[in-house]
Design brief:
By secondary structure, the protein is an alpha+beta fold.
Length: 241
């Protein structure tokens, strides 16, 4: 018996986008199953069904997994109407063919670890707010990080009515002569621009933020702008989180 699955999951498995984005495509009327437009999220399909997005057939692709050390001033998006640089400008021809997309986001001014994949199920798992996925950032700020500030960050900062907390803070270095501080923080939440907004809420002006690792996959040995395939043990590690 042919396995049935929800249309949004089938789109994710075929490397179109994450399940969340696939749902948006369906609701927008951009998806056809066997040449019929489908806008119902609960629609079931099998591998025998022909699926089209924007009238283009979506074929199966092998799953691919990469790590990018994202430079600053690159958008974490697949395209930009204002012609600004995006992470796609760093893709190889093979990655374009594999239709890999970013797992979550890093904002324009932030550099560091960004996972890329066409595995929609994994991307959904890693960005689901219900899961505690560790993300480690190195931060440099203007100003002196005080014990009171550390306590506030660990207890939680109210961001638009939601309490945002750090999992931990370490490697604190205070440079009083130049009025700057640097430190490493870990979060397990998935709030938009969380690190930047938490620091700004305690009146620290950010000089730069770099994400050192995402889901325990780190950028050691990877220069800014470089991309490498994930190793088999790293892929396995992501799937068992």
């Amino acid at each position: 018996m042919m396995e049935e699955m929800r249309l949004q999951r089938a789109l994710a498995l075929r490397g179109v986008a994450s399940r969340r984005k696939a749902e948006e495509l369906i609701l927008a009327g951009r998806v056809k199953v066997n040449d019929e437009v489908v806008t119902t999220l609960g629609t079931k399909v099998t591998n025998k069904d022909e699926i089209k997005v924007d009238n283009k057939v979506v074929s199966k692709v092998l799953k691919a997994y990469y790590l990018l050390n994202k430079p600053v001033n690159y958008l974490t998006t697949m395209s930009d109407p204002f012609q600004r640089k995006t992470i796609v400008d760093l893709y190889s021809p093979q990655m374009l063919a594999e239709r890999v997309f970013p797992v979550g986001r890093l904002d324009y001014e932030t550099s560091g670890a960004l996972l890329l994949t066409n595995d929609g199920d994994l991307a959904y798992k890693l960005t689901n707010a219900a899961n505690s996925i560790p993300k480690v950032y190195q931060v440099r700020v203007f100003g002196i990080l005080t014990q009171d500030m550390i306590t506030k960050l660990l207890k939680g900062i109210n961001l638009d009515g939601i309490l945002a907390k750090l999992k931990g803070i370490s490697d604190i270095q205070i440079e009083k002569k130049i009025n700057q501080s640097s430190f490493v923080i870990t979060i397990e939440e998935a709030k938009n621009r969380q690190v930047r907004r938490m620091l700004e809420a305690i009146d620290l002006k950010i000089k730069w933020i770099k994400r050192l690792s995402f889901a325990n996959i780190d950028i050691s040995g990877l220069n800014e702008g470089e991309i490498r395939p994930l190793k088999p043990h790293e892929i396995k590690k992501l799937h068992v989180l």
